[in-house]
Design a protein that fits this description.
Elements lengths: L9 H11 L2 E3 L13 E3 L13 E7 L5 E6 L14 E6 L5 E3 L13 E7 L5 E6 L14 E6 L4 E4 L13 E6 L5 E6 L14 E6 L5 E3 L13 E6 L5 E6 L14 E6 L5 E3 L23 E2 L5 E6 L14 E6 L4 E4 L20 E3 L5 E6 L14 E6 L4 E4 L13 E6 L5 E6 L14 E6 L13 E5 L2 E5 L4 E4 L2 E4 L7 E2 L2 E5 L4 E4 L13 E5 L9
Antiparallel strand pairs: 1-37, 2-29, 3-4, 4-5, 5-6, 7-8, 8-9, 9-10, 11-12, 12-13, 13-14, 15-16, 16-17, 17-18, 19-20, 20-21, 21-22, 23-24, 24-25, 25-26, 27-28, 28-29, 30-31, 32-33, 34-35, 35-36, 36-37
């Protein structure tokens, strides 16, 4: 944010003050409140009670970093959680509210584990997860993993891994992801009753259309024929047009002769499939390309241009000389493959202990890539062989360590499962360390959210709070509203509209003007101006 004032016409200021009853807080050279720390503990209740068991899997966040979904084995985070099975939770990081998502038809936690893999829409309205519970919906009698969508707005849960009759499919369905706009959900399944290409023997990747209720097999070849290997780990661009996935098939594209798993992207509009784990000359990988955990999704940018992936192959970049797993970005538009898992001088780690990658993700514009690795020394203060979380700024060529102790020290144990918000500002991850925030007294694996803009470390508050945003002041209340040309409505109302040269948003008691709103509703411009003390107003008032 630039240190300047936003010049508002007098009539604009009067209008905002009279209609909204707000106090105007202009950006200044000195924040009204000191900046607080920026790593928040997520798996705790609104009253500050920490989880009594560990988290697992890959925590995911909405585009603006407000909502974070995760899986936990705790039974003290919500009164409805009456067992010690893995359950899916949704945290509102602005209010501190924590909600059990994998709820049965009786209102209690489901009778089977949920949340092995999670996805969340850009606005946080939809959470997708897999579960073996049979009581999340009526008449789920297949006794298998199914894929579900929870709608935060309507407080309802729906099974989407269903056959044409609307019944849960006859094969295990898992590893869902959701497009940023919330319309499409990808998942993999061994079912034989999901449509064309459903053999019942191989995993196939499907896309479910939430609007039309239809399912498409996206792991067929470009002519719509079945392939000769399993396909897994589908991930979607913002509008769902492009699907990135991993496959063992050798006949998805011509000249696939390496006999190893590869990463592919399918254009759902044209049906064209492209292999992406190739070098900048289009040569195929000579060693396997996959991650080290079940959450090894390829990352994909909003427009589908940039794809992140893992590979053990040493022929994808002339920089790659360490003989270890590495992270890459493929620019599909320019046909360039870039090595990502390097330090800020562009140097790889050559540790003989090996390099372990569990997850990778990319920001909406493709600038930032987050990943985790045991390779020491990619960024300070890391000197250990524990797994740590990093973000690589591709524009500046800078690699930054994320899981840093509350006092800037090395974390005590490993961290991983990183995901990144659409603008690259927020990173969610799990960690076994208990020194990332001062108030962490748990011996279990916890979920954290790191704000890269403010730096430092803070514990997530469960109360209303004021917060420094660049050089503006931000006030969080209890209800989320937005302003649309003077009309105020409750979330999840219509899209934001320009107000003069900025946009106005009312979120949890705060109205902010910004000269560059990101798609996720987060200020991504050079200036943000916030107003506090907003009273809830009904639509049309």
């Amino acid at each position: 944010m630039k240190n300047q004032y936003l010049a508002l016409a007098p009539t604009t200021s009067v209008f905002l003050s009279m209609v909204l009853g707000v106090g105007i807080m202009l950006a200044s050279n000195r924040p009204a409140f000191a900046q607080t720390n920026s790593t928040s503990l997520i798996d705790l209740t609104k009253t500050g009670v920490q989880a009594n068991f560990g988290a697992k899997g890959l925590p995911v966040m909405s585009g603006n970093g407000r909502y974070c979904a995760f899986a936990s084995g705790s039974n003290n985070l919500d009164p409805a959680d009456t067992d010690i099975l893995w359950d899916t939770y949704l945290k509102d990081t602005w209010t501190g509210d924590l909600k059990l998502v994998s709820v049965s038809t009786t209102g209690l936690s489901g009778n089977g584990p949920s949340g092995g893999v999670l996805g969340i829409s850009d606005d946080g309205r939809y959470v997708v997860f897999d579960s073996s519970a049979s009581d999340l919906i009526p008449f789920d009698a297949n006794g298998l993993l199914d894929v579900f969508v929870y709608d935060q707005f309507t407080d309802t849960t729906k099974c989407i891994s269903v056959n044409p009759a609307g019944d849960p499919s006859n094969g295990a369905s898992r590893k869902p992801q959701i497009s940023g706009d919330g319309r499409y959900v990808s998942f993999q399944s061994t079912a034989s009753d999901l449509g064309i290409g459903s053999t019942g023997t191989l995993d196939q990747v499907y896309v479910y259309d939430m609007l039309l209720g239809s399912i498409e097999n996206v792991s067929l070849d470009s002519f719509g024929f079945e392939v000769d290997g399993s396909s897994r780990s589908g991930n979607l661009s913002y509008d769902g047009r492009f699907v990135a996935f991993r496959s063992c098939a050798s006949n998805l594209v011509p000249n696939d002769t390496n006999g190893i798993p590869d990463y592919f992207v399918r254009d759902r509009n044209t049906g064209i499939i492209e292999r992406v784990n190739v070098d900048s000359n289009g040569n195929q990988a000579v060693s396997p390309s996959w991650g080290a955990t079940p959450e090894d999704f390829p990352g994909i940018s909003d427009d589908g241009r940039f794809i992140t992936f893992f590979s053990y192959s040493d022929n994808l970049s002339p920089q790659d000389m360490n003989g270890q797993f590495d992270v890459y970005v493929r620019d599909r538009q320019l046909g360039i493959t870039e090595l990502i898992s390097v330090d800020s001088q562009g140097v790889q780690n050559f540790t003989p202990l090996g390099v372990y990658f569990a997850t990778t993700a990319i920001s909406g514009d493709g600038r930032y890539v987050c990943f985790d690795t045991t390779a020491p020394g990619l960024a300070p203060p890391d000197t250990s062989t524990n797994a740590n979380v990093y973000v690589r700024d591709r524009l500046k060529g800078v690699t930054e360590m994320i899981d840093i102790g509350a006092n800037g020290e090395q974390p005590t144990f490993s961290s991983g499962g990183a995901s990144i918000s659409r603008t690259g500002r927020y990173v969610a991850f799990w960690s076994q360390s208990n020194n990332l925030v001062a108030t962490d007294s748990s011996p279990f694996t916890d979920v954290f959210l790191h704000d890269r803009m403010t730096g430092g470390a803070r514990c997530g508050s469960h109360q209303r709070r004021r917060r420094a945003v660049g050089n503006a002041l931000d006030y969080r209340g209890d209800t989320h509203w937005h302003l649309d040309f003077g009309r105020i409505s409750q979330w999840p109302g219509d899209s934001l509209e320009p107000v003069g040269s900025a946009r106005a948003q009312r979120g949890l008691g705060v109205l902010c003007l910004c000269d560059g709103w990101g798609r996720s509703g987060e200020c991504a411009g050079s200036l943000e101006l916030c107003f506090g003390g907003l009273a809830p107003v009904g639509a049309g008032d």
